[in-house]
Amino acid sequence: MMEAFADILVIAAHPDDAEFGAAGTIAGRIKEGRQVVYVVCTSGEKGTSDRTVKPELLARIREKEQESAARILGVREVVFLRLPDQGLEDTSEFRKMIVRAIRKYRPGTVVTSDPYRRYVWHRDHRITGQVTLDAVFPFARDHLAYPDLLEEGLEPHKVTEMLLYGSEDINYRSDITTTFDLKVAALRCHESQMKELEVPDIEAWLREWSCSMAEGVECELAEAFHRIEITR
């Protein structure tokens, strides 16, 4: 039987989101001995310009790519919710799924997309971030929120830290100099998405981006987040 507890729960809208936003940080914390679990909300079945590929096939491809990327990083488990790509909504049902995951895995840290990025931002990223923020506080914490979860043995849980990737309000930078190669290797697993980028040298492109994220701190390469410490 798989262990339920995880130190870090990463909640992503699509396969590859976690790798783009936080793979270096995730790999670093795993090297420190932390247990990490992914929750991937959709299978990314609409994210293609290829008119010959069926959504059902693309979903299977992208899930396999995500599992391969997670193995490279050392992620213990990947949970696929299989909600519709480009169809996520801020509903009680979706929020309950995230609350269930938080109460099941009981993480200290939750990583997700920043819902407050302005203008051009995938709507699924925005909705996932907002639903996750609400699930963390107050719904996962309060026993009267979704009381039927108590009947499943899922007791309330208080998350203490959130890291929001893709943020325009950066207040935390994570040194990924020693885990950059793992980030690159994990992203290369997402072959169906890498070809959509049409970037000739993904490693050089990522290095330039990671260098820009390290500006102002004493490291070569970084990932940047809006970090929230939760004390209530």
Keywords summarizing the entry:
7 strands, seven-stranded mixed β-sheet, 232 residues, Rossmann fold, alpha/beta, single chain, globular
Question: What this model shows, in words?
Answer:
It contains eight helices and seven strands. With about 230 residues, it is of the alpha/beta class. It has one domain: Rossmann fold. Helix 1 crosses helix 6, helix 2 runs antiparallel to helix 6 and helix 3 packs across helix 4. The two termini are about 35 Å apart. The relative contact order is 0.19.
The backbone outline, from C-alpha atoms, is: globular
User: Could you give the distance between the termini?
Assistant: 33 Å
CATH architecture: 3-Layer(aba) Sandwich
- CATH top level class name: Alpha Beta
Strand share of the residues? 15-25%
By DSSP (H or I, 4+ residues per run), the number of helices equals: 8
Spatial strand arrangement across the major sheet: 3-2-1-4-5-7-6
| Helix percent band | 40-55%
CATH superfamily: LmbE-like
> Structural class of the helix and strand makeup?
alpha/beta
Rg calculated over all Cα atoms: 17 Å
CATH topology name, in short, is Rossmann fold
The count of strands amounts to 7
Mean pLDDT: 96
Biggest pleated-sheet summary: 7 strands, mixed
**SSE order:** EHEHEHEHHEEHHHE
Detail the poorly predicted runs: none
